[in-house]
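Handout, section 3.2

Students often ask what a structure token actually looks like in practice. Rather than define it abstractly, here is a full record for Putative transporter component. The first block is the sequence as you would receive it.
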Amino acid sequence: MDPRWQGLLVGILFGIVLQRGRICFNSAIRDVKMTKDNYLMKMALVAILVETIGFQLAAQLGWIKLNPLPLIPLAQIIGGFLFGMGMVLAGGCASGITYRIGEGYVTAFVAAVFFGVTASAVRGGPLSFINNWLGKPITTTNNPNGFYAAKDGAVNLTIANLLNINPWIIAIIFAILLLIIVIYWKTTERKVSGLNWITGGISLGIVGIIAYLSQKTYPLGITGGWVNLFRTTTANLDLTQPIPYNWMGMEIVGVIIGAFVAALIAKEFRFRAPKDPKTFAQVALGGILMGIGAGSAGGCNIGHILSGLPHLAISSIIFTIFAVLGNWLMVWYLFERR
């Protein structure tokens, strides 16, 4: 099957799971600080747990090569922090604003447009000088058991290949730690009409594994898809040529379609627009910060947190830490400082 059709189908499945689970990493991180609500956070941890085992198993069976995102410390520190602040202003993470377009949120569409255009400009467009400032990837030649994708012998850094040990060892330790947290961290009570934190987390993890098996080079992502869709806003502008859609671009289309269908069936679709016009400026600014952050850091909450942490990628660990710090700073500034 054409990879673009595969991306579309995986995206539809992804969109359905996002919509029925009400999964948003901005809300998951924000709620832990603001209201001590860990419901969505536990859903995310379950998904990461499932993917940690699933990715390693697929690599061990020879179905994929593990391909963690490149480590550029300054990029992940600054990019993660900007992204964390931006998703609070935008009212959703990269995946959150994407699936909410399918639910009829006008602000999500505005945030997504500014996110996609800005990320495109940073990745090979007018703002590409930002990436030139941030440095080059730090790699290793360690490739324990040959499980990692290599380019000219260079492998992107994870805890396992940094220590030059079988990635199963680190994956099992990480999975056990996640399992302990999931079991013993008391879940905030919440009434749900769709997927609960367990079924939603497992479903999200399974979709991530399916995406890796389909795309081969990486599991789920959002930023790369929006960049693909908005490539004509960069130096590649050519109105005489069709947009060269790829797996990631079609995945974004699929997410919106899947969320739309799921929302219609659940009778949760309706157009929603804010009454205060200032909200549009706020979400646009949020989208810009997210675009700069994800464009420079090499990924967003899906690329780094959901898909990157199961690799135990050093880049994704750094991004996650600073995205949380940026999120919490903006939460404090907007909601708590007074």
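Discussion prompt for tutorial groups: The chain is about 65% helix and 0% strand. How would you have guessed this from the sequence alone?
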